[in-house]
Amino acid sequence: xxxxxxxxxxxxxxxxxxxxxxxxxxxxxxxxxxxxxxxxxxxxxxxxxxxxxxxxxxxxxxxxxxxxxxxxxxxxxxxxxxxxxxxxxxxxxxxxxxxxxxxxxxxxxxxxxx
Length: 114
Prior knowledge:
The chain is of the alpha+beta class. The chain is built from 2 helices and 7 strands; from the N terminus they run ββββαβββα.
């Protein structure tokens, strides 16, 4: 799969942050929590990449979600493959199906939790 780009940031109010970005077919996963930094490299199969991008094409998210009275949780999802581009972000506000997105992301990464 060429022309592939994926960058996801999840930052919680408690200071925990997760960053995922790809380099070619590999995903570099970084988690910072309570001052501890964990880094992993995940190698999804081609079918898993296809499934995840097919899932993203079905999402009907706005470009931005903001709750001005929130506490500071931030997230962003940027993806590109071939002609398909996806970009959405938010601060203390989320699309309706955000939890389902997180579950799908965990399955794609082969993880039980972040």
